[in-house]
Amino acid sequence: MLTVALPKGALLKDCIKLFQSVGLDFSAFLDSSNRQLQITDPTNTAQALLVRTHDVPVYVEYGQAQLGVAGYDVLREKNPKVAHLVDLGFGRCRMSVAVKESSPYQRAVELPAHGRVASKFVNCAREYFDSLDLPVEIVPLYGSVELGPITGMSEAIVDLVSTGRTLKENGLVEIEVLYESTARLIAHPLSYRLNSDNLDEIISQIRNTSLAAI
């Protein structure tokens, strides 16, 4: 039976609409009274796992799920051994460098050498500043990274930005965009090559599903 890893949180509703458009119904996950983390489609041809966003590529890489949906930001950060198949178009956001509004730094390259940058995307942040040939200390934070500059612990942050509202409300401004991120369909490489559980047909249907139809 085909197993799909779906992310909790902001991407879930669009993921469920996507799979409904190809005949798989995992909408039970949207029922607030449902506490199940694994459900089976009514057609009994596929099941879905509800996992944390950052865990989706792990379940796919290790073969517990043949398909999954993860943000490009997660894939860039974790660099899992999975097949990248389709840019799904939803969940659009950007990875950005931000500083306090009162900061004298207007570009990332202007940040002080050996200064501190707070981020939950440690690898992405380090890769970016390495590309600038700017040595900085990456401070790993997994809660509200905006507090880094606010408290003076860091000169800047690297974080996902969608509307920019959270930054504005906390007195921060973007000074650089590393890359744009959207939701991506990924697959377990071996399952994809072997066309396990009729993967090719499902992937083809998803490729042909326009965003307007979701």
Please specify the SSE layout and strand pairing.
Blueprint (H helix, E strand, L loop, with lengths): L1 E6 L4 H9 L17 E3 L5 E6 L4 H6 L5 E5 H7 L4 E5 L5 E8 L15 E4 L2 H10 L5 E4 L6 H5 L4 E6 L3 H5 L2 E10 L1 E5 L1 H6 L4 H9 L7
Parallel strand pairs: 1-3, 1-4, 7-8, 7-9
Antiparallel strand pairs: 2-3, 4-11, 5-11, 6-9, 6-10
Reported by name, the CATH topology of the largest domain is D-Maltodextrin-Binding Protein, domain 2
Number of strands: 11
CATH class of the largest domain: Alpha Beta
* Major sheet description: 6 strands, mixed
Which class best fits the helix and strand makeup?
alpha/beta
Mean pLDDT: 94
Strand order of the largest sheet: 2-3-1-4-11-5
- Overall shape: it is elongated
Report helical residue fraction.
Answer: 25-40%
Our estimate of the beta-strand percent is 25-35%
Count of helix runs = 8
What is the domain tally?
2
Uncertain runs with pLDDT below 50, 5 residues or more?
A: none
Describe this structure in words.
The structure is a single chain. This protein has 214 residues and is of the alpha/beta class. The protein has two domains: 2-91 and 182-213, D-Maltodextrin-Binding Protein, domain 2, CATH 3.40.190; 93-180, Periplasmic binding protein-like II (D-Maltodextrin-Binding Protein, domain 2, 3-Layer(aba) Sandwich), CATH 3.40.190. It is 27% helix and 29% strand. It is built from eight helices and eleven strands. The strands form two sheets. It has a six-stranded mixed sheet. The longest helix has 10 residues, at 122-131. The protein is elongated, with a radius of gyration of 19 Å. The model has no long low-confidence stretch (mean pLDDT 94).
